[in-house]
Design brief:
The chain is α+β, with helices and mostly antiparallel strands and 307 residues long. The protein has two domains: 4-251, Hsp33 domain, CATH 3.55.30; 257-305, HSP33 redox switch-like (CBS domain Like). It contains ten helices and 13 strands. A six-stranded mixed β-sheet has the order 7-6-3-4-5-11, covered by helices on one side. A five-stranded antiparallel β-sheet has the order 8-9-2-1-10, sandwiched between helices. β12 and β13 (292-295) form a beta hairpin. The chain starts with a strand and ends with a helix.
């Protein structure tokens, strides 16, 4: 099955479950941005988190942005999701490479460093809503769980994982800015959010905490062929769960040449004239999909004349 997101209720309505498998979309993001392994893990976890949190959005035009801004070498990570669970994102420094951490895993926390997490929701109101917290660890999932508990008063378990492999020949390749595509393959990616509903029984909460602590990492289970729905069923064995509502998700940029043109027009007549006189053409690259739109002198003059 291609990437998907699902929702369900469990334990007689005491728990809301949101899960997603995101291997294809994280591979696509890695291909576009030519990310190193640790940057792939950071971006992949953030994109998966954005997919999961898209369930907070109600209307087709709503959007949600997750922004990690740290002092580590990766700089920052951004992911944007629509209500349809299609996401886009980027890392500021996609070629960062670090040694494994003391647990033998990709050091996402070290790559991001100390800093802040902001979540911005544009839901068609006069001003978007933005909440910001200091980072707990930079490991993405812990920070999102803390944000949900602190900023939105929603006690939540967040588990995210990206398992990064090597190329088809099994070689450890060094990524540099001249590579045409990322040699690293994402073997598995996904995650889930478990949200306690008001009035949840304390005994159930204690049991859930015990089970989550004993659960193997998401990526280990996905790479062993355990699907996300099956994973949640194993975690909640003995508790009822409603039939999951399943929808597709994926990586998709919403940029277009017309949108870029409107941005250029928004610069004003003086700036357009300066570009015509100094550069003859304008090249604008999209941070999310790496598409480059070039506007030649004649087209810039037409913009200027129509302003």
């Amino acid at each position: 099955m291609s990437d998907f997101i699902f929702t369900a209720l469990a334990a007689q309505g005491m728990l809301r479950v949101i899960g997603a498998e995101t291997t294809d979309l994280v591979n696509e993001a890695s291909r576009i941005h030519k990310t190193s392994p640790v940057a792939t893990a950071a971006l992949g976890r953030t994109l998966t988190g954005a997919v999961l949190l898209s369930k907070q959005l109600k209307n087709e035009q709503d959007s949600l942005t997750i922004q990690f801004k740290g002092k580590g070498p990766i700089g920052g990570v951004v992911a944007v999701s629509g209500a349809d669970a299609y996401v886009r994102g980027y890392v500021e420094n996609p070629f960062v490479d670090l040694p494994l951490n003391d647990k033998g895993k990709l050091d996402v926390g070290g790559a991001i460093g100390k800093g802040f997490l902001s979540i911005i929701k544009d839901m068609g109101l006069k001003e978007p809503y933005m909440g910001t917290i200091p980072l707990v660890s930079g490991e993405i999932a812990e920070d999102l769980a803390y944000y949900l508990a602190y900023s939105e008063q929603i006690p939540s378990v967040v588990s995210l994982g990206v398992l990064v492999g090597v190329d088809k020949e099994g070689n450890d390749l060094i990524l540099n800015e001249d590579d045409e595509k990322s040699p690293f393959v994402v073997k598995a990616s996904g995650g889930y959010i478990l949200q306690l509903m008001p009035g949840a029984d304390s005994n159930f909460i204690d049991e859930l905490e015990r089970r989550v602590a004993a659960m193997p990492p998401v990526t280990w289970m996905l790479s062993d062929g355990v699907g996300m729905i099956e994973m949640i069923e194993m975690l909640l064995k003995g508790y009822d769960m409603t039939k999951p509502e399943i929808h597709p998700c994926g990586y998709r940029c919403n940029c277009s040449r017309e949108k870029v043109k409107s941005i250029l027009v928004g610069l004003g007549k003086k700036e357009i004239l300066d570009i015509i006189n100094e550069q003859s053409s304008a090249s604008v690259s999209c941070r999310f999909c790496d598409t480059v739109n070039v506007f030649e002198k004649d087209e810039l003059k037409e913009m200027y004349d129509n302003m």
